[in-house]
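Training component of the fellowship. As part of building independent skills, the fellow (R.M.) carried out the full modelling exercise for a liganded target. The chosen ligand was glutathione. The inputs are recorded below so that the supervisory panel can assess the work.
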Amino acid sequence: MTIATGYKIKTLKDFFMLELHQFAPHFGLPNASPFCMKVEAFMRLAGIEYKSVKVTDPAKGPNGKAPWMVDNGETIPDSRFIIEYLNRKHGYPLRNDLGKEQLALHHTITRMLDESTYWGVVFERWVLKENAALTRDALLESIPNPLRKLVFTLAQRSVKSALHGQGTGRLSSEEIVTLAKHDIDALSDLLADKPYFGGDKPAEIDATTIAYIANFITPKMSSKIRDYICDDDNLVAYNERMMKEVFPEFSA
Ligand SMILES: N[C@@H](CCC(=O)N[C@@H](CS)C(=O)NCC(=O)O)C(=O)O
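Fellow's submitted model of the complex:
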């Protein structure tokens, strides 16, 4: 059954399709926000059908941040709660046969990436002078100049204030990179010689790890974090493997 809605013909399926509200792709990545990319990776790995709805102003979302999801009229903000919701609805499709201890470790690594490592990425993209113009022109490409410069200045101010509040912004750039390197070492040791963090096949943690590892490696900007991870053959190979399998349209 099809219904005319003025601009587009929609099928009935379109009306009931789960919607992932997320930013448009940038920097050669499906998403420059690891939170958005994590949820999309989770859905793809779990075989959950969805449609992507482009967010231009995250302030319009329920928490003022992307991603959020709409399912049958219910709106769920925050990648953590989206994944929890999908897990409950679909019977925890990516837990494989992992034991409690392994799942607890995966949970901890996910929080490390979301709550700590993430801020190193934010710092390098938004604060480092050598990257700021690149970030501005990629993320704000839809805004014409000179407005784009003004919007970026305001956004950068708010990012710096968030970094200061969280604490990372009070560290030197060397200290920020040192902390990120420790996190990357932990990832590398955890992956070891397995093809996936989940073992022989991807598990829930792989949605998060590919979102961060791809966000470290792919954007071609001045980044000591990128230089460091690119020396880790194991994580580089993991990135290539996962991108080919999960996001083939973005794999090199
Ligand atoms: N805890 C949230 C974090 C989401 C988040 O921080 N999103 C950023 C992009 S990476 C955002 O929308 N920032 C816009 C803003 O703060 O104005 C989640 O897991 O979804």
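The panel noted the following from the submitted structure. The CA atoms of residues 48 and 90 lie 9 Å apart. The longest strand covers residues 19-22.
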